[in-house]
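Lab intake sheet, docking and co-folding queue.

SAMPLE TYPE: protein with bound small molecule
LIGAND NAME: LDVFA3IR
LIGAND FORMAT: SMILES
REQUESTED OUTPUT: full 3D complex as structure tokens
PRIORITY: normal
SUBMITTED BY: R.K., bench team

The fields below were copied directly from the construct record.
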Amino acid sequence: MLHIPNNAIITVAGTVGVGKTTLTHALADELNFKTSFEKVDNNPYLDKFYRDFERWSFHLQIYFLAERFKEQKRMVEEGGGYIQDRSIYEDTGIFAKMHADKGTMTQTDYQTYTSLFEAMVMTPYFPRPDVLIYLHGDFDSILDRIQARGREMEKQTPLSYWEEMYNRYETWISSFSACPVLRLDIREYDLLADQSCIKRIVHELSTYF
Ligand SMILES: Nc1ncnc2c1ncn2[C@@H]1O[C@H](COP(=O)(O)OP(=O)(O)O)[C@@H](O)[C@H]1O
Ligand SMILES: Nc1ncnc2c1ncn2[C@H]1C[C@H](O)[C@@H](COP(=O)(O)O)O1
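RESULT FIELD (auto-filled):
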């Protein structure tokens, strides 16, 4: 019988609104694992960032990096058994890079951020997840989910921002190599309509161990 070790660290990746949090809860319930979520509600920069990318992008990246690094440390110190909502790799590979490329983060700030990220994360000592679950699907459904969730700052953000991010995710995952990747298409399961489909996802996941 296939088995997922109870010290595993599984991270869920994918664009905003794709369903990471929903899957994180369902997997953790099914496996009796702990959860690690990103800081959205009490994030001191996120609202300001959406109102003025240029002014706040560096501050926000440093904040997320610090928070995710602390979470990473906690998960390892507690001996694993975690489902993590979003990976630290997306901060640099998607968000920081996108803002630097678009000119909403200065090149100097981007270099400072990148050198800090590399010193903290891209070392042999940094524990990698056992598996990264990559969620993907069609752009329109993801946009509908962002609207339905209703975070005002995201609803006010131009469609072109989400489109740019959506396209970057596909490029990013095609060269991602830090750990094994399980790709899940959100059109092939629906946790809100049928909670039992988590069993199929767990079975697929277990083949990675
Ligand atoms: N299978 C689904 N069908 C429809 N809506 C969904 C489904 N799964 C999640 N959602 C909804 O989509 C929104 C975004 O999901 P969420 O898990 O918060 O995404 P993420 O964490 O990736 O931003 C939420 O309102 C959630 O309830
Ligand atoms: N590193 C990041 N830079 C900018 N914005 C980020 C970063 N990480 C997360 N975010 C934003 C995107 C969303 O508005 C919220 C939460 O993301 P979600 O995909 O809904 O969990 O934070």
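REVIEWER NOTE: The radius of gyration is 17 Å.
SIGN-OFF: pending second check by T.M.
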